[in-house]
Here is the input.
Amino acid sequence: MSAQIIDGKAIAATIRGEIAAEVEEMKTKYNRVPGLAAVLVGERKDSQTYVRMKKRACAEVGITSFGYELPADVSQDELLKLVQELNANSNVHGILVQLPLPDHIDDETILGAISIEKDVDGFHPLNIGRLSMKRRDPLFVPCTPRGCIELLDRTGIEIEGKRAVVLGRSNIVGLPVAMLLLHRNATLTICHSRTKNLPDVVREADILIAAVGRAEMVKGDWIKPGAAVIDVGVNAVDDPTRKKGYRLVGDVAFAEAKEVAGYITPVPGGVGPMTIAMLLRNTLDSAKRELGMA
Ligand code: NDP
Here is the structure.
């Protein structure tokens, strides 16, 4: 039997609708709206696209966005100064510094300078540290991991007591999503490039989160029948039949996997739209906290 497709696009649209309604309520009650500052350094086309998408999404739900575009040769001190100004600006509830930064800038220093109250990406070491500890709540959970859990919850997939396997241990996806699954009482295995017998480990997963960045690496016969598969990977593969010459695929061989899994996210249209929806949610949560609404 074919898996139920988890429609991230539709779920993200529902969440954006909920956020827009809450922003409207905030405006009526407090005459304030949430504000997100997006800082872009340099002229990477992909980063420009991501920032543009985030600003558009803000406008759609009534969140004010403030854009800062700095040249690729901006000094670390100038960038730090901007972050500090944004920390002090009460109209800004979230600060987003688009990664990657140019090589001469230490991203740990920059991310660490963002006020923990405005760290809507959830990458501040204090937020990640709290996420990794028992009974310590971070102020913000990183957007893509939060989106993965939201997809499971909104599809009615129970997490507690399930065997969860996370492929990947990066700071922005693998590690935080694993911590979230652990907090929700899953029995957890984290895999990485040195894991032995990967297919056998993956076959134990009731819930599989794939975040490795390897096109269609996870085959259909790695999947436990009925499992929930969340595919975070976004990989471009050559496709001369497409105008752009490529198409996007996930880390999971979707066509094979959907014949075995119980639930599966497509790429594109699965986790991707959720990442931006969670950024909006984090920005709204920050503004609610500032106004004493949360
Ligand atoms: P990273 O490259 O930072 O991390 C990849 C992880 O996968 C590492 O932990 C690495 O192991 C592991 N890995 C690599 N190769 C293998 C392998 N052959 N077998 C097992 N594990 C392996 O990637 P990110 O976490 O940043 O991103 C992962 C994917 O998710 C990418 O495709 C990215 O584009 C996508 N992504 C999608 C988002 C969305 O919104 N949809 C947002 C963010 C990312 P090790 O630690 O040992 O090196």
